[in-house]
Design a protein that fits this description.
single chain, about 280 residues, alpha/beta, Rossmann fold, 2 domains, two-stranded antiparallel sheet, about 15% strand, elongated, binds S-adenosylmethionine, SAM-dependent_MTases_sf, methyltransferase
């Protein structure tokens, strides 16, 4: 579960972290056949995705869903008549988009219980000839053939927070034909400093006077807590105090190690306007 302070700031706060798959571990390095066993935090993670609410939030996110639809249509020529693997199909929405774009077959793989409804959705849309829904982790399932295209919505907060990318890379190394297409194929993570006076006052200054009691002794702890823990919030543009800098890039043709190298890179922040 997300710590409670990560919940409730926005509906998107419902995306769950899964920390089992170490973000730096390339499946190629780990050996394609050697999938990590399902652990308790995986079970909690997949259980979270069994709730309808998270799928509703994702699908209603038009920027996200339209972007996937547009990408599929842009690559229609590559998808038509081809075999697609949808890693973590959820309700099956991306599989349906691919089938409608003319895919010969779509393997829709999903580890959580929403797969039951995904199967019904495929049936209700008369796509059972094209879409094969498979319940299981992509690391554990067996497909009848290699695929031409892998599609997946794996991006969590801070791009990697959900730790799903290693599963996609595992699927790539095991199931994608040479020269195959991955959607999305690239991702860039930007970082920018922000200020949020209201939030600071609420979390830090709050301790200066609590019911008339001076509790300032807690201010250093509160400062540590607010700066150490990630927080998912919607803030206004006026709170962004510098231009964003690229801090990580992902390319589907490279190992994830590329992203982690950038951890040590220096961010140069331009035109930073600090509040007095
Ligand atoms: C962000 S959701 C995307 C759902 C759907 N593709 C969509 O776009 O609405 C990610 C989904 O991937 C599933 N998932 C994550 N890791 C997986 C894995 N290793 N094998 C199979 N499914 C996985 C989760 O259970 C979840 O339903």
């Amino acid at each position: 579960m997300l710590p409670s302070h990560l919940n409730g700031h926005s509906a998107l706060g419902r995306r769950r972290p899964r920390l089992s798959a170490a973000a730096g571990e390339s499946p190629a390095a780990a050996g394609v056949e050697a999938a990590a066993p399902l652990e308790e935090h995986d079970r909690i993670y997949f259980q979270a995705y069994s709730h309808l609410g998270i799928h509703e939030t994702m699908i209603k996110d038009r920027v996200r869903t339209d972007a996937y639809h547009a990408a599929i249509m842009r690559h229609q020529k590559f998808i038509e008549g081809k075999v697609v693997l949808d890693v973590g199909c959820g309700t099956g929405i991306l599989s349906v988009f691919c089938a409608r774009a003319g895919a010969k077959r779509v393997y829709a793989v999903e580890a959580c219980e929403i797969v039951v409804q995904a199967r019904e959705i495929v049936k209700a849309n008369n796509l059972t000839d094209q879409i094969v829904v498979i319940h299981g982790r992509v690391e554990d399932v067996d497909l009848e053939e290699k695929v031409d295209v892998i599609i997946s919505e794996w991006m969590g907060y801070m791009l990697l927070y959900e730790s799903m990318l290693p599963s996609v890379l595992f699927a790539r190394d095991k199931w994608l034909k040479p020269g195959g297409l991955i959607l999305p194929s690239h991702a860039t993570l930007f970082m920018a400093p922000v200020t949020n006076r209201e939030r600071y006052e609420d979390s830090v200054d709050f301790w200066r006077d609590v019911y008339g009691i001076n509790m300032s002794a807690l201010v250093p702890l509160a400062k540590k807590f607010t700066s150490e823990e990630p927080s998912i919030e919607t803030i206004g543009g006026e709170n962004v105090i510098s231009w964003p800098s690229v801090c990580a890039r992902y390319s589907s043709s490279a190992s994830i190690a590329i992203i982690l190298q950038l951890r040590n890179s220096n961010l140069s922040l331009q035109n930073t306007k600090f509040h007095q």
